[in-house]
Amino acid sequence: MTTNSLPDDPHANDAAPYGGGDPYADYRVFGDAAAFTDLVDLADRRLGAGVIAANDEFFAERENLLVRERAVFDPEHFGHKGKIMDGWETRRRRGTADAPFPAPEDHDWAIVRLGAPGVIRGVVVDTAHFRGNYPQRVSLQAASVPGAPGPEELLADDVKWEEIVPRSQVRGHAANAFTVTSERRYTHVRVCQHPDGGIARLRVHGEVVPDPEWLDLLGTIDLVSVLNGGVYEDASDKFYSSPTQIILPGTSRKMDDGWENRRRRVHGTNDWVRFRLVAQGAVRAVEIDTAYLKGNSAGWIALSGRDGETGEWFEIIPRTKLQPDTVHRFPLAAQAVVTHVRLDAFPDGGVARMRLHGALTEPGRASLAERFGRG
User: Fold this and answer.
1) What Å distances lie between residue 232 and 10, 33, 336, CA to CA?
2) Which of 27, 193, 324, 334 is spaced 20 to 30 A from 19 at the CA atom?
3) For residues 352 and 296, what is the distance between their CA atoms, to the nearest angstrom?
4) How many CB atoms lie within 10 A of CB 61?
5) Rounded distance, CA 113 to CA 117, Å?
6) What single DSSP character describes residue 374?
7) Which pTM was predicted?
């Protein structure tokens, strides 16, 4: 059943009132989030995303939409405006004395600047703890605006906002997932609540498409960084944390801010993770960081690469012992031209960050420019 086929009864999607105990005990997941949630969240604050404007945030601040941790609920937490919720919540909309309900076109909105512009594959509108005060419907639009525009520029008449999620019903106290099919590159999204209500969190999953001219100016770049279009593809294990974190910008801040797998017990096997570069690149140096991983870092690693989806894997770094909580730097004797890399951990353990320093090849640069031009 799709979101648009939910019952028309405006209360059919309510969650039961909070009855005590674990507030997530009756939390629901709706839609095919598994199809895209392994992709990077383009609206991650760690990438520079922000909620830069909203028409109303009377009960709860718009910035809560992008908090990384899941929403919390304190039934005794009230302020001078009423119940304090961990999300973005607007006041109740009113019509007129003769028609007290809001008009069909009335809605609230918030504009989010994506930290890493790219192609959006899906969004999650999380209404955790909004049980009877969630929006009846939501919609999302997206725009591609260069530079660092402010709210006034984004709300100007000449900005083209395209609908990526049509007006759709959502469930209260649930993760509502919506697949997006547009192939355009976007820099901003606008989430709309129809007519009003509260949303706990917003996630915008997709593939980063960086500006090739900016990468040209930088020269040597991290070819696998999320900010430069690197993508996590697959891994043998992601028990404790997402392998995507290996290619996030910045340094790890704590033990779970990287990739850690469970303890491997089958002899003769090892853990691995595979990434795809934004386009073909020439790697000249590699960094492997085990920050905060002390008794659980990988014992040894090896790095392989291939050129193209069907290319043969070849060795970039042979099996090498790692130290815990340490940055390891590997200059390469010859540059490695690759589109994909695979990091093997022997036999198991964690890696906080990996950097592949180099530059796009001419074919890689042309491929990226073509994707960038579609936006």
Assistant:
1) 39, 16, 19
2) 193
3) 11
4) 15
5) 9
6) T
7) 0.88
C-alpha count within 13 angstroms, C-beta hemisphere, residue 150: 1
Write the DSSP string, 174-212.
EEEEEE-----EEEEEEEEEES--EE-EEEEEEEE---H
Q: What is the pLDDT along the chain (375 residues), one digit of tens a residue?
A: 344 555 567 788 999 999 999 999 999 999 998 899 989 999 999 999 999 999 999 999 999 999 999 999 998 889 898 888 999 999 888 888 888 888 889 999 999 999 999 999 999 999 999 999 999 999 999 999 999 899 999 999 999 999 999 999 999 999 999 999 999 999 999 999 999 999 999 999 999 999 999 999 999 999 999 999 999 999 998 877 888 999 999 888 888 888 888 888 889 999 999 999 999 999 999 999 999 898 899 999 999 999 999 999 999 999 999 999 989 999 999 999 999 999 999 999 999 999 999 999 999 999 999 999 876
- Estimate the share of the chain in helix, then strand, then coil, as percent rounded to the nearest 5: 10, 40, 50
352's tokens: 């906080």
Q: CA 49: distance to chain centroid?
A: 10
Distances (CA, A) of 274 to 22, 54, 107, 232, 361: 36, 39, 43, 6, 21
Look at the block and give the residue holding tokens 């906080």.
Answer: 352
* Number of residues assigned to the chain: 375
Q: Which residue has the tokens 């660092």?
A: 148
3-state secondary structure of 155: coil
Neighbouring C-beta atoms of residue 318, cutoff 10 Å? 10
Task: Give the CA-trace dihedral at 74, 77, 83, 85, to 10 degrees.
Answer: -50
E strands along 238-294, which residues?
271-289
Q: What CA–CA distance (Å, rounded) separates 17 from 173?
A: 10
Amino acid at 291: A
Q: 318: cis peptide before it, omega within 30°?
A: no
